[in-house]
Amino acid sequence: MAQREVLEKVARSSSAAHREVLRARVLLDAAAGVGNKTIAGRHGVTAVTVRAWRKAFETDGLTDWGKVKQGRGRKPTIPAEKVAEIVELTTKTTPPGHTHWSCRTMADRVGVSPATVQRIWSELGLQPHRVDSFKVSNDPRFSEKLIDVVGLYLNPPEKAVVLCMDEKSQIQALDRTQASLPMKPGRAGTMTHDYKRNGTTTLFAALDVLTGKVIGQCLPRHRHEEFLKFLKTIDREVPRGLQVHLILDNYSTHKHDAVQRWLTRHKRFHLHFTPTSSSWLNQVERWFRDLTDKNLRRGIFASVPDLIVSIETYLAAHNQDPKPYVWTATAESILAKVQRARTTLNQGVSQN
Hints:
CATH superfamily of the largest domain: Ribonuclease H-like superfamily/Ribonuclease H
Number of strands: 5
Strand order of the largest sheet: 3-2-1-4-5
Order of helices and strands: HHHHHHHHEEEHEHEHHH
């Protein structure tokens, strides 16, 4: 599994040599059971090359990666065994008292220069200083909910609008304790590290998957009463005659009895719930990230009304030229990835 992870990192790398990126992609396709001729046509190489790379990998694994071909130039000074040792230590161990390897700690451990370690890591797409966060959903209906939501993205129903809906709660109106300095040539803009809290608001937002337009409303709290008020706003905004498919999470507010009664009276609304611990499946989360980066993080708000005006201004500017987020992943590819993650987690638990 460590070798697959290395190959996947190399295949995604923007800094590794093109040949190594190509070889990693070929080997990943081979591991997926794709035929040699199909792989060759897909990546623009010959079937002979595919067979050679597969055979070399079966024999030597990753030990020949990072080796320099013999030629008239400078001869390689790092043996293949040393490269393999660095890969093994990087992917399977940590230095005493540390959570990850650095170029210097690895260089001291294996007896090479930090620059050599950095070059090998770069060529193989290894980045021990970085970590990606994740959580594998334990929802017993994970597959069912995933297929339902992805189906709406890839094959939306006719005469309907698909909305990704969520709440961004507890948005703080933060004011700085001192005036900020503007940006000028040779110096970035500045603001104090400390701040004053002036209250909070909750933003209810629904992203139209087809157009990228967002229906938004700031409300004081995050209860079923506010959710019902936002549903009524959606009902007014969406043209009559269109069905409304809402993709949202499993928050209890969304399933409140009062909400269910309202939905019973408004038959055109259909709720689709994402699996638990799967906020990445809701496209409006991507829009919330843009809102935070472009409006909230560096904003200065003396009051909650000031904060709401700023959010509404950003929302109006976005809707003047909306751009949808294009979803490409199929349910099958996501399920396969999740299954690999679960297998890896189970192996790690059994080893411990």
